[in-house]
Specification:
This protein is an alpha+beta fold. The protein has two domains: 63 residues, ACT domain (Alpha-Beta Plaits); 74 residues, Alpha-Beta Plaits, CATH 3.30.70.260. The strands form two sheets. Strands 1-6-8-7 form a four-stranded antiparallel β-sheet, with helices on one face. Strands 3-4-2-5 form a four-stranded antiparallel β-sheet, with helices on one face. α3 crosses α4. The two termini are 15 Å apart.
Length: 149
């Protein structure tokens, strides 16, 4: 199994920091048919939080997101890396991005069983495009080296 790198549109919005507010947002999206792969929610202040979700794939889902105050996350150009987990995967990706002189705006990652999914956010479209190239080369080298082992 190889790695897949894809661009992702992340939606974000502020919510009241009260019980049930995140549930309300997620229920509206679920009722619109959204099958979310990515949810991050953080407290911003005592009274507010911010939620990030992806993907929203059609107009109905995007309208539902707008109805609960979500918008495309401005200034956040995100990619998704999906593939086999291995020791040092995150470190290697971070190192090749750094070597290309790209700053990472945010990272979320998880491993379930042997599969890992990593979301990386960058401050510009150009940085995201360059990151896709350098990460692709890095992951290609990993794949070739594991075939020889």
């Amino acid at each position: 199994m190889g790695y897949t790198i894809s661009k992702v549109e992340v939606w974000a919005g502020d919510i009241f920091n009260r019980p049930g507010m995140l549930a309300r947002v997620l229920e509206v999206l679920a009722n619109a048919g959204a099958k979310l792969e990515f949810i991050v929610s953080r407290r911003l202040t005592r009274n507010t939080g911010r939620v990030y979700v992806a993907p929203l794939t059609d107009g109905k889902q995007k309208r539902a997101a707008a109805d609960v105050g979500l918008v495309v996350a401005s200034g956040m150009h995100s990619i998704r890396i999906d593939g086999p987990d291995r020791v040092g995967l995150g470190a290697g990706i971070a190192r090749c991005i750094a070597a290309a002189d790209i700053n990472v705006r945010g990272v979320s990652a998880a491993t379930i069983g042997r599969r890992s999914v990593i979301y990386l956010a960058f401050g510009s479209k150009a940085d995201a495009a360059t990151a896709v190239k350098v990460i692709g080369k890095h992951l290609g080298r990993l794949r070739r080296s594991s075939k020889r082992a």
